[in-house]
Specification:
The protein is α+β, with helices and mostly antiparallel strands. It has helices at residues 5-20, 68-86, 97-110, 122-127, 156-162, 198-204, and strands spanning 28-32, 39-48, 51-61, 129-141, 146-151, 169-179, 187-188, 194-196, 209-214, 217-220. Strands 4, 5, 6, 7, 8, 9 and 10 form a seven-stranded mixed sheet that branches. Strands 1-3-2 form a three-stranded mixed sheet. Helix 1 (5-20) crosses helix 2 (68-86). The termini are far apart.
Length: 223
Amino acid sequence: MRPTLQYVEEKFDYYNNLCFGGQLPRPMIKLTQRREFIGRTNMSQRCIDGKYIRNASIEISIRYDYPEVEYIDTIVHEMIHYYMWMNNIDEESAHGPKFRAIMNEITQKYGIRITIQCDESEEAMIARVTDQNRYICVITDTNDDMALAIVIRDKIFQYWDIVPQLPKIKGVKWYVSNRAIFAQFPARIKPYFIRLEPAKIQDYLFGAAELERIDNVIKPKEQ
């Protein structure tokens, strides 16, 4: 089947009431012809006149003719991401233990089949190119430990100046990458640093371009 917009909206409302107690305001729902995913949740937060405005949308691809159970799986899967974002439930990866706990609870209570289609090996995610650039801030502290954060593009200038002033920061580098590995990390207005082994960060940065700032221009460094 290829669902209609009305179908997806009706299923969202049904599973919102069944699984989430009707807590979730229906986000914008879009049908696409994208080939690289069946479902995707887009979430953003902007500060306008001192007020934080949150926006979310769920995209469902109808490029391929899947059985209905696959679309229900996908809709509920994306609703879990949306629920976690709405309730500020942080996770270091897209499908970490908190996501899986909610997924398992829904499966056990309601018998809904939910899968994690995007579970790839790290090697595969490092190699796979996406159509979205992500901006990565990598810090080294005074103990030579390293951490990274994904920062939304509109806030790079602001945090370019702020991050080096944070306590115990020894070094800061910025990168841009379109590799799938960075899609697992939450993109924030305020940097949310995730500590990783330096060797792992270097692996993740395969193919990334280091950025430099010249006056009011941020651009890839010339090699």
